[in-house]
Amino acid sequence: MNSFTLTQATAADEAVRDLTSHDGAAYLGGGTNLVDLMKYNLERPTHLTSLGLLPLTDITSLPDGG
């Protein structure tokens, strides 16, 4: 597994900003197998942005269906 840095995002805009400010970055969230892929060198991100602390408790339907 390669070396990487990790950031814990606490807001969605922070997560987007963090990901776009690092080359070779990826999101790390529940239910992903990214760490397994990294162990086998199939994925080699240099920076991970963790989504585990985001306060995502609601789903809101928008008028346009989004």
The profile of the biggest β sheet is:
3 strands, parallel
CATH architecture verdict of the domain at 5-50: 2-Layer Sandwich
Span between N and C termini? Answer: 37 Å
Mean pLDDT: 92
Molecular shape: elongated
Count, helices: 2
Structural class: alpha/beta
Taking all Cα atoms into account, the compactness measure Rg is 14 Å
Helical percentage: 10-25%
- State the assembly state of the protein chains: single chain
General description of the model:
With 66 residues, the chain is an alpha/beta fold. It has a domain of 46 residues: Uridine Diphospho-n-acetylenolpyruvylglucosamine Reductase, domain 2. It is 23% helix and 18% strand. The protein has two helices and three strands. It has a three-stranded parallel beta sheet with strand order 1-3-2, covered by helices on one side. Strand 2, helix 2 and strand 3 form a beta-alpha-beta unit. It is elongated, with a radius of gyration of 14 Å. The N and C termini lie far apart (37 Å).
Name some characteristics of this structure.
66 residues; alpha/beta; Uridine Diphospho-n-acetylenolpyruvylglucosamine Reductase, domain 2; three-stranded parallel beta sheet; 2 helices; 3 strands; 23% helix; 18% strand; elongated
Tell me briefly what this model is.
The protein is α/β, with parallel strands linked by helices. The chain has two helices and three strands; from the N terminus they run E-H-E-H-E.
Which SSEs are present, and which pair or pack?
Elements: E1 5-8, H1 12-20, E2 25-28, H2 34-39, E3 47-50
Parallel strand pairs: 1-3, 2-3
